[in-house]
Amino acid sequence: PHRLAHLINPNNPRHPADMTEETTGGPCGVAFTRERVERPCPQTPGVPKFPSVWLFGAAPIRRIRALTPDWRQPRTWYAGSQNNLYRSTNDGNGWELMWTFSGETVWAIEPNPDNDGLLALVTRVDEPDSPVKARVYISTDCGETVTKVTDFNYGIEDIGWLLRANLTILLLATDQGLYEFNLSHQRQKPPRLDVP
Fold this sequence. Notes:
Shape: elongated
Order of helices and strands: HHEEEEEEEEEEEE
Strand order of the largest sheet: 1-2-3-4
Helix content: under 10%
Distance between the termini: 60 Å
Radius of gyration: 21 Å
Largest sheet: 4 strands, antiparallel
Number of strands: 12
């Protein structure tokens, strides 16, 4: 396994015989995908061929309520699985857990088609007796950071973006009808919905 780990991680300068469990990881910032494991295996002496490889880690694997591509970011997808927001930057070959929303379920995700990095996210509050039924979050950096911009005391079914007269508008399809809010955002300031 150490020789295989060295082939998967060619940036590791240690000799395979000197490696331990702590030194067999991949380089920082590089996705650990199925292809990174499968590619070196046939060239590794003593490693038999195998039909498939499964890597387990942070990935949207059940109760996926929202899945959407980011049309402005190549090969980028977002997924909402239970209370987690995931992002893939390689068309789903690898996923990273971006945020966990305790006591909430990720319900809708919508990247903005006109602004790089702008993402709206809706969660449903899981506690039945809570006066808050849904929350709206905004990210201006592809999900690296999220800001809660408002709470709703009724459910939000879906969201969408609209560009009207150079205004960025977030549409909310709720249990009580369709709402629209102007989004005030600048790269250095937190986003804000103009809620009436």
